[in-house]
Every structure is written in structure tokens, then in C-alpha cells.
Design a protein that fits this description.
mainly beta, nine-stranded mixed beta sheet, 6 helices, membrane, CUB_CDCP1_2nd_5th
């Protein structure tokens, strides 16, 4: 180390070949202006670069003044750009500027070239350190020092914008902490035809004993100058012309002072067309609707002008959230509105099942949201019902199509339906399909998700209606009517993860008159392995109530089957092992119904036989009449042995009641014979339903099929080896062999639940 003091002349040399890697040179000049004014003008580099060795060198100017004297640093060369701790400058040239507060040195910041900072005003002295790399042959400092009146604050940093651009600036002593109870100001010079917005990138506050930390804006044309904001408030934007931003500290708690620091960005850009247009979003009548406008998650590889959402044309930020109960005026300061999107959420809940039952509520996007010039990404409705009291019915204005790989949705928007229970996703649906209605058991969400800008013109004519119905226990019931022109593809919920354990889903498939439906499954086996319970599928004809039951664990799936009438498909899951999960894809196609050739032959043959019989009868009648014509004339003779009464119409039964069996019952019920004895003795009078025919009085096809008795779930191969277990049906014991489901009231079309899993079966949890 070698030190050369003022007035000394020293010669030196280095013993190494690369001294720039081992030595640095520091030239420090102390300037005392406490007794007289400081020298004005450009600050020279002394000694000149030619007289110094090629080392990394630092020039330091330490200027001391009286406490009430102000100084101004003016940078004549390229304006400066502030950098944070750890950042470096591309050319290696940096300015480190500090000030004094009493005896303490406060670092204002470190700066590189090619920025916006043109002047820095300080009070009570300054210290400038210019760092030059050894290969820089520079002969001037690039700044000048002038006297200035007292600024009555720590410093003032002036930033000049001549065109669009941005600047990132930091508070003094960043990140160590802003000096206690100090004031720092930034002055921004912005052309009148440009607009500026401020956003805070990082900040923290200290623990204040007195006063409050805040930022203040002096905005041209504002009637409330200065405008005061908290650091966590949205900051102003869309400001035209020059403005000032000040950071005010507080009196800190000496025991736990904390640290006040701020890093922020100022963005200057041309005003956009949308910045002059205001959109009114009225949420004053809403209690559960909230709307967020935020940037899309697409990082840009290059600099782009900012995209801000402004409230009341002044408070701007990259993201805003509009809460229910207020009315907002929204404008945009953005060069490309496709960089933003909107996300909304609304809760629709029913707390009183007596009020909500059978009532319908539309799921429609409000016009105030649709009018916004940004894409509506998601609009979600949370549908909440009383537990075990009500269920949900979704009815679309136009029939829906389920999104599958075989037939994907290509519309500009779709409805994503999911249960509030974890891991239960019913699917994505778009308009133009065959699904007329979706019944959901419990709390669910419906999300309208958009994919193309054209949804604005399509979505007003669409919509869903939700209604509340009595509770049922199936996870979902889909009512569908296939189209005669295309296949109807359907798949089980949770396609990617499998149907949840011990859950059941049904499809009510309507077959139009004159059509025949072909039901086809995409694979032969499900591959599911049950840990407990049974996984099975029921296909039931709604007209005849005939059922086919398949074990999804053991049996192969049915081959394509044809149905001329509406039918049910019910799929119930077991509790599968951690391997293969239950997922099924099937489709339905319609073809015109054709008559059976055997039936046609029988009908034609019967018609020919009938015609032949009629012809034979006619011939016999004619011959009989001819024989009667050949008799002689009639003679009237009284015969007392002849019955003179007029012949009566022949009786329907030729035998009398005592001679035929019309009074004999096919089945005589005991209660009809002994009922008077039971009534007389006070016993209960119950009419048995077994072995007595009664016509079905209920509605047909209004509910999914019930599961088979437990004994019918035993695989066929085991029936020959083992004694069948006793049957335990889930239906009432008075109807052990019927598959029909009469309603409580004739003509009722309400879907009610029939349990699909026997709660008493071993391995299944009780309800």
C-alpha cells in the first residue's frame, strides 16, 4: 500500500506483470465549503488519466457545507440509471452518491449511465465516488457541483423522460433502512402528451412511535395536492405531465425500529384509446360477486409498456379487485388489452330449504362485466345447499355436449362443473349436444370459461338455470336425448383420476319414437380391482323395467346392445385398490327403427287366413239361403207343444253360473275370508302384496335403477361350486322380486334416490 499526501511527489513501479489484478487506485479530494461558497462548474479529474497507472481507480469528492446550505449535482453527460445492491454496470463505470445527516453518512444510491436521473439536490454536504475500470481512459468526471438554497429534506432526485420508458428507483440507504423522520423527493419531468404510472415493487415499514410513514404526490391539476397514500395503497397512474413523489419517515421505536425501504417503478407511455374511456361496473346491489382484472401469466422476453387498470382515472395498478357493494369507474392504461383478463366469482347459497325448493335461479354473466374490453377468463358460481336437505339441478338454455377426446368442444366457451367435494370433477360441457339436464347431489361449482374473443356475441343467448330439488344420494344424474345425426359420447366423472370410491352416477337416455339406440362401450374390461365393496353396472329398460347387471370387476363389458325404448345406465364404484381406477367411455347412436321380417310374415299370413275364412263363410251362407228358397208355401197350424215366446238374443255364456267357473277365484286372499275375524279381534289388517297381481300405478322411467340383491352379485362361475348366499334386497321386504318403482303419487316425475350400495354388506361403510 502506498499513500501520497497533498504536496508530495512520488515515483513507484510494480514488480508483477499484471498489477491491475492486484492493486486499486483511490484519489480523494476533500472540499470544505463551510466558510466560503463552493467552487462552481465542472469537476475535473486530477491527476489526469495519462499520469496514472492502468489500475481500477476510484475518484472521491467529499464536500462539506453548513447544515442549511444546499448543493446540486448536475450530470452533463448521459443521464444516470439507479441500480440495486449487487447489480453492476455494463461498462464498469459507476457513481456512488451519499449525503450527511449530522455525523452519519447516508447513501443515496449507486448509478450507471444511460438512464433518466439528471440532477440530485442535497443538503449538509455530499460525497461522490466515481469508479472507473483500468481500461477506461477517461479525463472528465461528467458532473458539476453548484450551490443551491436549502431544500429542507434529505435529497431531491430529478428524473427526466423524453419519450416512452421506465425507471426503477430506490429509497436512501436501501435495503438497510430509510433514515428516521426524514423526507426524500423524486421529481419526474414527463412530456404533456405522455402518461405516467407508479407501481411499488418492494417495500417495508418501520415501527413508528409518532407520525405515520406515507408517500405524497404533487400532481398537476389535482385539487387535493398533495395526495397522500399509504405504502400498501394502489398508487396513482395515468398522470399527464410533471409530478413529484415524496417518501416521509416517522419517529421510530428505539427498542424495535424496523426498517422503512421502498423500491418502485415509474412507467411512461403514450395514452391509449381505452385510457380516455370509462366503464361503469355497478356491484352496489351484489352481495357475493367479486371481480378481478389482472395480467395474463405470460412473461415478456423484452421491455413492454405497462398495462394498468385505473379506478376513477387516477389510482392505477397492474391488478385490481372490485368488491361487492360498490360502484366503480374503470379505465385502462395499456397498449395491448389482450395482456389482461378478468376473473369473477359469485356465491349462490340456500339456507332455508323450504324457501329454495323448486325455485330456479339463472346463472348469467352481468352486462357490466361483459362490457369490459378485456377477456373474461372465468366466471364461477359457487352453489351451496343445506346438507342432506336439497340437491341441485342444472338446466341449460341449449342442450350441452360433454368434452371428450373423441368429440372435443370447439365453442368459444364452456361450462366446467365440479363438486365441492375433493377429487370430483364432472366434466367440461359446451353447447350443441344432447344433455338436457344435470342433477348434482351436493355443493358444486359451475365455471364459465372462455377460449376466444367471440364469446361476447355467443354467451348472452346461452345460460344455465339452477334449481333446488329434494335431496338424493347419487353423485350425479345426466338426462340425455341423443341426436340422430351424430354419436353421443359420454364418460364417467373424474376421467383422469377415476370415479371416486363408493360413488354412483346414472344416465337417463331417451330414445325418440321411431328410433333405435345402439349402446357401445370403448373397451372390454374396466380393469378395476376392488378392495372392498362391489363395482357394477346396471342397464335397465324404462318401459319394461328389465335389468341387466354386470360386475365391473369380474365380467366383460356388454357387446353393443340395441334399445327401442328409453333406458338407464347406472355405474357404481367400489373402494378400489391403489392401482387401476374405474373410468368408462361409451357412446350411443340412433338409427331408424325397422320392422322384423318374422313379424311381417306373421301379419301377412294372418291376413290371408282371415280373408280365406271370410270367403268360406260367405259361400256357406249363400248355399243355405238357396235351400230355404226351394220349400213350399207356409201353413199356419197351432201347436200347443211349441214355446210361443219371442226368441231372445243368445247369451254370452251358454252355461249358467252354476255350470261354469266364473265364480271361482284364481287366488283367494286370506284377508278376504278371515278379515272380519282379524278386525273383530282388534288385530292389524295388512294386505299382502306377494303373489297377488296389481297394476303399476306410478310413473315410469323417473329414477335410476336400484342395485341387484346381494346374491345376484356373485360371479356366475362361483354359483356351481358354492351355496348361494341368502338374498338381501335393498327394496322393501314385501316386494323381493320386483324391479319397478311406483312413486308415492301417480304422475310424479321427481327423481328420488334409491341406494346403490348395500350399507349392510360386508366391506361397505354404513350410510
Amino acid at each position: 500500500m502506498l499513500t501520497v499526501k497533498p504536496g508530495e511527489r512520488t515515483s513507484f513501479s510494480f514488480t508483477c506483470q499484471d498489477p491491475e489484478k492486484h492493486f486499486v487506485l483511490e484519489i480523494q479530494k476533500n472540499i470544505d465549503c463551510t466558510a466560503s461558497p463552493c467552487p462552481l462548474g465542472e469537476v475535473p479529474l486530477q491527476p489526469p488519466a495519462a499520469a496514472l497507472p492502468a489500475l481500477n481507480r476510484t475518484f472521491v469528492w467529499d464536500v462539506r457545507t453548513r447544515k442549511s446550505t444546499g448543493l446540486e449535482l448536475r450530470f452533463s453527460g448521459p443521464r444516470l440509471r439507479q441500480v440495486g445492491p449487487g447489480d453492476s454496470c455494463p461498462d464498469g463505470v459507476t457513481y456512488t452518491i451519499s449525503s450527511r445527516v449530522d455525523a452519519a453518512v447516508v447513501k443515496i444510491g449507486t448509478f450507471c449511465g444511460k438512464g433518466t436521473v439528471s440532477r440530485i439536490k442535497l443538503q449538509e454536504g455530499l460525497k461522490v465516488a466515481l469508479h472507473l475500470p483500468w481500461f477506461q481512459a477517461r479525463n472528465e468526471s461528467g458532473f458539476s457541483i453548484t450551490n443551491h438554497t436549502a431544500i429542507k429534506r434529505l435529497c431531491i432526485v430529478e428524473s427526466v423522460f423524453e419519450d416512452e420508458g421506465s425507471a426503477t428507483l430506490l429509497s436512501a440507504n436501501y435495503p438497510a433502512g430509510f433514515p428516521e423522520d426524514e423526507l426524500m423527493t423524486w421529481q419526474f419531468m414527463v412530456p404533456a402528451h405522455l402518461r405516467a404510472s407508479v407501481s411499488f415493487l418492494d417495500f417495508s415499514t418501520s415501527n413508528c412511535e409518532r407520525k405515520e410513514e406515507r408517500v405524497e404526490y404533487h400532481i398537476p391539476g389535482s385539487a387535493t395536492n398533495p395526495e397522500v397514500f399509504r405504502l400498501d395503497d394502489p398508487q396513482p397512474g395515468n398522470m399527464a405531465g410533471n409530478f413529484n413523489l415524496s417518501l416521509q419517515g416517522c419517529d421510530q421505536d428505539p427498542q424495535s425500529p424496523g426498517a422503512l425501504r421502498l423500491r418502485f417503478q415509474v412507467l411512461v407511455q403514450h395514452p391509449q384509446t381505452e385510457s380516455n374511456k370509462t366503464y361503469v361496473v355497478d356491484l352496489s346491489q351484489e352481495r357475493t360477486l367479486s371481480l378481478s382484472i389482472e395480467p395474463r401469466p405470460k412473461p415478456s422476453p423484452r421491455f413492454k409498456a405497462g398495462c394498468f387498470v385505473c379506478l376513477e382515472s387516477r389510482t392505477c395498478s397492474p391488478k385490481v379487485t372490485l368488491a361487492p357493494g360498490s360502484k366503480y369507474k374503470v379505465s385502462f392504461l395499456c397498449d395491448d388489452l389482450t395482456r389482461l383478463w378478468a376473473i369473477a366469482e359469485k356465491t349462490l347459497s340456500c339456507s332455508d330449504h323450504r324457501y329454495c325448493q323448486r325455485k330456479a335461479f339463472p346463472l348469467q354473466v352481468p352486462d357490466d362485466v361483459l362490457q369490459l374490453p378485456v377477456q373474461l377468463r372465468d366466471f364461477s358460481w359457487k352453489l351451496l345447499v343445506p346438507r342432506d336437505r336439497l340437491s341441485l339441478v342444472l338446466t341449460p338454455a341449449r342442450k350441452l355436449q360433454q368434452h371428450t377426446h373423441e368429440r372435443p368442444c370447439n365453442a368459444s366457451f364452456s361450462y366446467v362443473v365440479a363438486s365441492a367435494a375433493p377429487d370430483l370433477y364432472f366434466g367440461s360441457f359446451c353447447t350443441g349436444g344432447s344433455i338436457k339436464q344435470v342433477l348434482l347431489r351436493q355443493n358444486s361449482s359451475v365455471t364459465l370459461r372462455t377460449y376466444a374473443p367471440g364469446f361476447h356475441s355467443e354467451v348472452p343467448g346461452q345460460g344455465l338455470t339452477v334449481s333446488f330439488v329434494p335431496y338424493f344420494k347419487e353423485e350425479a344424474i345426466f338426462t340425455v336425448t341423443p341426436d340422430t345425426k351424430s354419436k353421443l359420447y359420454l364418460r364417467t366423472p373424474n376421467w383422469d383420476r377415476g370415479l371416486p370410491a363408493l360413488s354412483s352416477v346414472s344416465w337417463n337416455i331417451t330414445v325418440p319414437s321411431g328410433q333405435e339406440a345402439c349402446l357401445t362401450f370403448s373397451k372390454e374390461r374396466t380393469g378395476v380391482v376392488c378392495q372392498s365393496g362391489r363395482a357394477f353396472m346396471i342397464i335397465q329398460e324404462q318401459r319394461t323395467q328389465m335389468e341387466e347387471i354386470f360386475s365391473l370387476e369380474d365380467d366383460t363389458l356388454p357387446k353393443p346392445s340395441f334399445h327401442r325404448h328409453s333406458f338407464w345406465v347406472n355405474i357404481s364404484n367400489c373402494s378400489p385398490t391403489s392401482g387401476k381406477q374405474l373410468d368408462l367411455l361409451f357412446w350411443v347412436t340412433l338409427t331408424p327403427r325397422t320392422l322384423d321380417v318374422t313379424v311381417i310374415t306373421a301379419v301377412v299370413g294372418g291376413g290371408v287366413s282371415l280373408l280365406f275364412a271370410l270367403g268360406l263363410i260367405i259361400c256357406c251362407v249363400k248355399k243355405y239361403r238357396k235351400k230355404k228358397v226351394n220349400k213350399g208355401p207356409a201353413v199356419g197350424i197351432y201347436n200347443g207343444n211349441i214355446n210361443t215366446q219371442m226368441p231372445l238374443q243368445p247369451k254370452k255364456f251358454q252355461k249358467g253360473r252354476k255350470d261354469n267357473d266364473s265364480h271361482v277365484y284364481a287366488v283367494i286372499e286370506d284377508t278376504m275370508v278371515y278379515g272380519h275375524l282379524l278386525q273383530g279381534s282388534g288385530g292389524s289388517f295388512l294386505q299382502p302384496e306377494v303373489d297377488a297381481y296389481r297394476p303399476f300405478q306410478g310413473a315410469m322411467g323417473d329414477r335410476p335403477p336400484s342395485p341387484p340383491p346381494t346374491c345376484s352379485r356373485v360371479p356366475t362361475a362361483k354359483l356351481a361350486e358354492e351355496k348361494p348366499p341368502p338374498c338381501t334386497s335393498l327394496e322393501p321386504e314385501t316386494e323381493p322380486y320386483t324391479f319397478s318403482h311406483p312413486s308415492q303419487a301417480a304422475g310424479s316425475n321427481r327423481a328420488t334416490h334409491v341406494p346403490l350400495l348395500d350399507p349392510q354388506e360386508p366391506g361397505l361403510p354404513a350410510e
